[in-house]
């Protein structure tokens, strides 16, 4: 297995300029592209492990990179990423992202699908497929908090706030 990533000349030409302002989705996407240019994250992934796993594979100045495996039926539940913007690329399989904007909308991303988001993004990511999926996520600035939500009578309600170092 090898990971692929949709490339753009825009990623390499704008990366230095992005460091001069608050990191955002473009910074996260550029961090993913740079990581994948140096490493194949699929090389050591166990696609038979029965639970969703996540591991921070790089902690950088501009972004943190996380590798997540998604067995069939696994999901994140509704959450945000604090003030961090981000991007993720599906490396293997397919994932459905439900985004909350007052209503839930769904988009299914198959490898090598990429999604970018800003710091106000609330979503739930689910593997509805028939095989384990793998994705690589970048958060800029570094992921420091996540708010968890529950959908109650058509509205999202905060259930908890996780801080870096407590749960992950």
UniProtKB/TrEMBL annotation:
UniProt KW Metal-binding keyword: yes
Region of interest (Disordered), residue spans: 1-24
Keywords assigned by UniProt, alphabetized: Dioxygenase, Iron, Metal-binding, Oxidoreductase
Residues noted as binding Fe cation in the record, renumbered to the chain: 79, 81, 123
Keyword Iron: yes
Origin superkingdom: Bacteria
Cross-referenced InterPro entries: CDO_1 (IPR010300), RmlC-like_jellyroll (IPR014710), RmlC_Cupin_sf (IPR011051)
Annotated Pfam families: CDO_I (PF05995)
Gene Ontology MF term list: ferrous iron binding; oxidoreductase activity, acting on single donors with incorporation of molecular oxygen, incorporation of two atoms of oxygen
SUPFAM superfamilies: RmlC-like cupins
Polar residues bias locations: 1-15
Family statement: Belongs to the cysteine dioxygenase family.
Protein name: Cysteine dioxygenase
Lineage per the UniProt record: Bacteria, Bacillati, Actinomycetota, Actinomycetes, Propionibacteriales
